[in-house]
């Protein structure tokens, strides 16, 4: 798969406890990204954060383990593909934040397999 030099980065900020059909929402989003043929997706688990639903700080500390840490799903591809993908996932994100920004793609390559 080739990506243009100028791509876009889609970031989806949600909570670890968010679900879609009894599955973690972040997992469902990644599976949908693969199914839609996007270049790739990465999930990052935050160690601290808060959002629109609550002003309570969710944190990963031994003395106070949060059950709803922040999760960020990052996907880089073309603007058109990401906007179409956003239309697919938007109805299933009940609370969160989504950003779309320009990204300069330096390279996107898979490891060559030796035969």
For this structure, the CATH topology is: Alpha-Beta Plaits
Along the chain, the helix and strand elements come as: EEEHEEEEEHE
CATH architecture: 2-Layer Sandwich
Provide a count of the helices.
2
Main sheet characteristics:
4 strands, antiparallel
- Uncertain residue segments: none
Number of strands: 9
Mean pLDDT: 87
N/C terminus separation? 21 Å
Tell me the number of structural domains.
1
CATH class: Alpha Beta
Beta-strand content bin: 35-45%
Amount of helix: 10-25%
Structural class, by secondary structure, is alpha+beta
Rg measurement, Å: 16 Å
Shape: globular
What does this structure look like?
The chain has 115 residues and is an alpha+beta fold. It has a single domain, classed as Alpha-Beta Plaits, CATH 3.30.70.120. 19% of the residues lie in helices and 37% in strands. The protein is globular and about 50 Å long. The two termini are 21 Å apart. The model has no long low-confidence stretch (mean pLDDT 87).
Tell me the layout of helices and strands:
Blueprint lengths: L5 E10 L3 E2 L2 E2 H11 L5 E5 L2 E2 L8 E4 L2 E2 L4 E8 L1 H11 L7 E8 L11
Antiparallel strand pairs: 1-8, 1-9, 2-3, 4-8, 5-6, 6-7
Give the gist of this structure:
By secondary structure, the chain is an alpha+beta fold.
Question: Which short descriptors sum up this protein?
Answer:
Alpha-Beta Plaits; four-stranded antiparallel beta sheet; three-stranded antiparallel beta sheet; 2 helices; 37% strand; globular
């Amino acid at each position: 798969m080739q990506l243009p030099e100028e791509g876009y980065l889609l970031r989806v900020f949600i909570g670890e406890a968010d679900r879609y059909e009894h599955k973690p929402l972040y997992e469902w989003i990644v599976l949908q990204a693969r199914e839609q043929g996007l270049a790739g997706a990465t999930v990052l688990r935050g160690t601290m954060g808060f959002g629109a639903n609550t002003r309570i700080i969710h944190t990963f500390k031994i003395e106070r383990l949060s059950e709803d840490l922040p999760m960020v799903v990052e996907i880089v591809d073309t603007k058109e593909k990401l906007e179409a993908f956003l239309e697919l996932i938007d109805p299933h994100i009940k609370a969160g934040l989504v950003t779309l920004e320009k990204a300069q793609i330096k390279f996107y390559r898979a490891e060559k397999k030796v035969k």
